[in-house]
Amino acid sequence: MTILRSTGLTFAVGFSMALALWRGGQAYGQSVPAPVSEGLARLDRAICLQQWEQAIGVTSELMATANISPAYRQELLSFRRQLQTWSIQPTPPSTQASCDRTLPLFLTLAEPAAPEPQPLDWNRALATLRNPRPIIQLDNEFEPTDTIIPLELMVSSPDALTNFASPMDTRDGFTVVGGSLDRNQQVYSVLARFGDRVSLEANVTRGDLSSTLQVFMFDQSGRLLTQQGNAASQVYMQDIVISKTDVYFVAVSPQGTTPILDSQGQLIDWQTTGGNNRFDYTLTLTGVTPYQALLP
After folding, report:
1. 75 phi and psi, to 5 degrees?
2. What is the second-level CATH architecture of the domain 152-293?
3. Tens of pLDDT, residues 43-64
4. Tens digit of pLDDT for each residue in 233-283?
5. Structure pTM?
6. How many whole angstroms separate alpha carbon 9 and alpha carbon 29?
7. How many whole angstroms separate alpha carbon 178 and alpha carbon 249?
8. What is the DSSP string of 246-263?
9. Rounded to an integer, what distance in angstroms lies between the CA atom of residue 296 and that of residue 104?
10. How far apart are CA 161 and CA 154, in angstroms?
11. Domain locations in the chain?
């Protein structure tokens, strides 16, 4: 672990990074001028992603910021030299502390409303006292897959995905789903964590075994991340590295059904050309963090 300390600034890569200003010892993000605060946030993100040249550039911008003390500018100069060293050494330092701040591993949801108080069931209590045998009541409060992914996480996702999406149950870190395709696409939604390495496998299982499968993966905004389908009845997509903890969409379609994208690569709609034979398929997803670990 590399640690640089002095009166004005402390850097500890791999454990924590405390940036103190030249006046009063205020901590990172407290009473910091906007240009400095924004620069420190960009510096944190660049360090998290180990983009050393960008981090060096941000540090230089901070050094040129008006109204910073000479001591603080000297601290930034020392840290810039350290960044230059990290940029060329074969084993970079751990940057998890910066990642925890800039690319969090867990999703943030609104606090659920407090449950309404339930009236006391005196009749049931009296019946229990009079009857030595336990009263058995079936529990119908199971969790359907439709509620796995909170709707608030998909409010800004395109209708061309959310209108067709079925949540994937990844409580074990993997799942296998299946269905039938003719002309239309089938869309699945899945939660994934920053750093997950996702793999997908799709296979034609029944019907016209010469049918062609296509698999597409989109992020929460509908931007196409990757696709596969080279006139084959089997599709493999391995080690898709997740760059942000969020909702993602996986679409399976027959040949001839393809996404329509705008100039930014985001999904607008689907188009189908030609006819297709009906067939059944399975889709296997592995490498994700169990969804219940990502939700509060």
Report:
1. -65, -40
2. Sandwich (2.60)
3. 888 887 788 888 898 888 888 8
4. 788 899 999 989 999 999 998 888 889 999 989 999 999 887 667 888 999
5. 0.58
6. 14
7. 15
8. EEEEEEEEETTEEEEE-T
9. 13
10. 10
11. 2-102, 152-293
